[in-house]
Amino acid sequence: MSAARRILVFGGIALALWGMAYGLWYAAFAEHQALDGIGLSLSSAFSSAAERQSAPVEAALARYRETKYVYDRQVDVHSHWIGLATLLVVLGLALDHLAWSERTQRSLAWALLAGAVLFPLGVLLETVDRGTGPRVVAVLGSGLLVVALAAFALGFARKRPASR
User: What does pTM read for this prediction?
Assistant: First the structure.
């Protein structure tokens, strides 16, 4: 098994396990609290609106937006890690059809694995810090994914040299 295939297949399996473990933790320990917070903030907003109290409505809707923002990203991170892990494994299995040298394949495999880890990680970090740092991590990860996937597509489209 080539080094690039090991990186993609074993890295993808490890990332899938990580994503599933994160999803299990989130479902068991955090999701219900988030959903309760979403429901409570909407209930408060509707009650205050019925009483024609605009300040509490705005405060409740702000709590809803914040809670929903964090909830959406938590769920997205879990599903993106698993989806990207699946993509890594599939590409690892199809590596024989890639018309790049072993060294290039290994570099692309590392870039894909790094992007698959960094992109969702940056999104997750945005739930605790809305600064530039987490956005840079997410953009770097997504950039690595786009460039590496484009190189994979080009490598699959190229004619593979005849083996001797």
Answer: 0.85
- The rounded distance, in Å, linking the Cα atoms of 92 and 3 is 10
- Which token pair is 9? 């297949």
Q: Are 118 and 15 in contact (CB under 8 A)?
A: no
Go through 12-22 and write b for each residue having 16 or more CB atoms within 10 A of its CB, e for each that does not.
beebbebbeeb
Residue 127 sits at φ, ψ, to 5 deg, of -75, -20
pLDDT category, 164, cuts 50, 70, 90? Answer: very low
- Helix 54-93 to helix 102-125 angle (10° resolution) is 160
Residue 108 in tokens:
């692309």
Half-sphere exposure of 41 toward its Cβ, with a 13 Å CA cutoff?
17
Domain parsing of the chain, residue ranges: 3-157
Measure the CA–CA gap between 26 and 31, rounded to whole angstroms. 6
CA angle 17, 23, 28 (to 5 degrees): 125
**Residues 114 and 11: beta-carbon distance below 8 Å:** no
The answer to whether residues 125 and 133 touch, using CB atoms and an 8 Å cutoff, is: yes
pLDDT tens digits, 9-37: 999 999 999 999 999 999 999 888 888 98
